[in-house]
């Protein structure tokens, strides 16, 4: 078996042929699929192991048809970890998993990408807003850098950014394809031909990168910190410690963007070695670099080489995305773009026509004058609050789902706003019911299917109303994941008569 350092050295120089690689967790989001494909197509001896059944993983298995891969499903076998040169771990697999302790070298698709990448990286994390911020940055970057890339927690593995090797006549794939040929310009020196990468990173992905010395983003962004994943973490402190990995390898040539309105923003700013920028709903105190919202959009203050403050607009007044929280998200994106060197007009024009992304206040359709929005990615109660505050029209809220060991107290401040609250079944819904009953707020349900909930909401709706799915919970008791939940919601809405 290869030693850990030898395995890493081989991967870095593109010498993957013959390595014994075990992918732990095929999953349904693409990371396991891309990892298996990446190594198998370069001649590695790949085993994919997952506790889920073949039936559950059917869609993922179809994407790997025809590629020489050994599968161990419904269980893990110790031998696949003891004899492997390399384990590629899915972020959903807890680092405390006993069987992982048998492995000599554990990596992830993100860590492998970072070991091979030589292009500038903008890394984004946070409890909420990170997908919108990441996507908005990428949306604008593509205007200048057509080959700009977006991946990570947003369900696109960064390993897909590398070209697939050619197939030899012997039926074996290239033993040493030049994986690093993607690099055009050095990190930290964006040029007109560079391919900047925007990485959305979850706390789990950041935790997996701890101590590896591979994540040194040119710009690191922490959108906010809210209680989340407390079914996975023993405490909020450990959740936050994982988030901090986004800036731990940065230096003075890098930038860290912090939320001035978040109580953890000051902590992050005090710890990072990078140049600090803030974003806020309100004007920043004198001396701080960053941006804030105003009645015309948002402005950015940056100190030039002479130490003189330069102030200019960074966010247009009119946006396609609803919600004050999305104005703040796009302000944050604009600051990152300005730091990266994108000209002001390009930023303003790009953010003005950014229409958002799937499952995040996504407009679905209008039926009989009733507008439907899919906010399935709202998996914590705070996101439901933001969703409710994003609309001025009469609102019917579909909410509830699987508990993540979170508190729902924040819903009290907005529970009076929806004209109807429609509940989906789930362990988290049981907590929501207790809260609603404690304040004498009526509700309907819980319903055992999204179709039933949508039909009921449509019957209650009148012309001019908004129906929104914003669960504030995980999805696993009724759906494969939050994306499956969002798609099922949209199917139910489209099917209404």
Order the strands across the largest sheet as they lie in space: 7-8-6-9-10-11-12-13-14
Classify the beta-strand content into a percent band. 15-25%
For the sheet with most strands, the description reads: 9 strands, mixed
Rounded to an integer in angstroms, the radius of gyration calculated over CA atoms is 23 Å
Structural class: alpha/beta
CATH names the topology of the largest domain as: UDP-N-acetylmuramoyl-L-alanine:D-glutamate ligase
Whole-Å distance between the termini?
62 Å
Helix content: 25-40%
> Quick one: how many beta strands?
20
Q: Look at the structure and give the mean pLDDT.
A: 90
| Unreliably modeled segments | 168-177, 181-191
The CATH H-level superfamily of the largest domain is Mur-like, catalytic domain
CATH class of the largest domain: Alpha Beta
**Count of domain modules:** 3
Please give the count of helices.
Answer: 15
Q: Would you identify the CATH architecture of the largest domain?
A: 3-Layer(aba) Sandwich
- The shape is globular
Structural description of this entry:
It is a single chain. The chain is an alpha/beta fold. The protein folds into three domains: 104 residues, NAD(P)-binding Rossmann-like Domain (Rossmann fold); 222 residues, 3-Layer(aba) Sandwich (UDP-N-acetylmuramoyl-L-alanine:D-glutamate ligase), CATH 3.40.1190.10; 133 residues, Protein-Tyrosine Phosphatase, Chain A (Alpha-Beta Complex), CATH 3.90.190.20. The protein has 15 helices and 20 strands. The strands form three sheets. The chain has a nine-stranded mixed sheet, sandwiched between helices. A six-stranded mixed sheet has the order 15-16-20-17-18-19, sandwiched between helices. A five-stranded parallel sheet has the order 3-2-1-4-5.
């Amino acid at each position: 078996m290869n030693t850990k350092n030898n395995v890493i050295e081989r991967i870095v120089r593109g010498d993957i042929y013959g390595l014994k690689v075990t992918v732990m967790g095929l999953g349904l989001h693409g990371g396991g699929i891309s990892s298996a494909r990446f190594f198998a197509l370069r001649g590695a001896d790949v085993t994919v192991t997952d506790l889920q059944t073949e039936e559950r993983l059917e869609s993922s298995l179809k994407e790997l048809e025809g590629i020489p891969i050994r599968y161990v499903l419904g269980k893990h076998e110790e031998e696949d970890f003891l004899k492997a040169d390399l384990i590629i771990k899915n972020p959903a697999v807890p680092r405390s998993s006993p069987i992982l302790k048998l492995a000599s070298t554990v990596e992830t698709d993100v860590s492998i990408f970072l070991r091979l990448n030589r292009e500038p990286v903008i890394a984004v994390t946070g409890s909420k807003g990170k997908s919108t911020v990441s996507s908005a940055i990428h949306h604008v970057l593509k205007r200048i850098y057509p080959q700009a890339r977006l991946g990570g927690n947003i369900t696109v593995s960064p390993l897909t950014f590398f070209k697939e090797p050619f197939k030899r006549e012997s039926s074996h794939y290239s033993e040493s394809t030049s994986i690093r040929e993607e690099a055009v310009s050095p990190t930290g020196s964006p040029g007109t031909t560079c391919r900047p990468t925007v990485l959305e990173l979850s706390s789990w992905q950041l935790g997996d990168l701890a101590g590896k010395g591979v994540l040194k983003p040119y710009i690191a962004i922490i959108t906010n910190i809210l209680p989340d994943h407390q079914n996975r973490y023993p405490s909020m402190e450990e959740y936050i410690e994982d988030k901090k990995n986004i800036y731990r390898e940065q230096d003075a040539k890098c930038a860290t963007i912090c939320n001035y309105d978040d109580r953890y923003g000051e902590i992050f700013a005090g710890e990072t070695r990078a140049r600090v920028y803030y974003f806020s709903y309100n004007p920043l105190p004198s001396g701080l670099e960053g941006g804030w919202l105003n009645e015309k959009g948002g402005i950015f203050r940056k100190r030039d080489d002479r130490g003189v403050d330069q102030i200019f607009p960074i966010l247009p007044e009119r946006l396609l995305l609803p919600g004050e929280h999305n104005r703040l998200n796009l302000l944050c994106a604009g600051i990152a773009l300005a730091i990266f060197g994108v000209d002001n007009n390009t930023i303003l024009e790009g953010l003005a026509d950014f229409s958002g992304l799937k499952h995040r206040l996504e407009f679905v359709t209008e039926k009989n004058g009733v507008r439907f929005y899919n906010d399935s990615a709202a998996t914590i109660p705070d996101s439901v609050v933001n969703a409710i505050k994003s609309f001025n029209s009469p609102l019917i809220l579909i909410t509830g789902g699987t508990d993540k060991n979170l508190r729902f107290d924040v819903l009290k401040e907005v529970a009076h706003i929806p004209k109807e609250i429609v509940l989906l079944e789930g362990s988290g819904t049981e907590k929501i019911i207790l809260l609603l009953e404690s304040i004498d707020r009526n509700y309907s349900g819980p319903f055992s299917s999204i179709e039933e909930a949508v039909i009921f909401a449509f019957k209650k709706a009148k012309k001019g109303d908004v129906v929104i799915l914003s669960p504030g919970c995980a999805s696993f008791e009724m759906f494969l994941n939050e994306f499956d939940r969002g798609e099922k919601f949209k199917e139910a809405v489209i099917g209404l008569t």
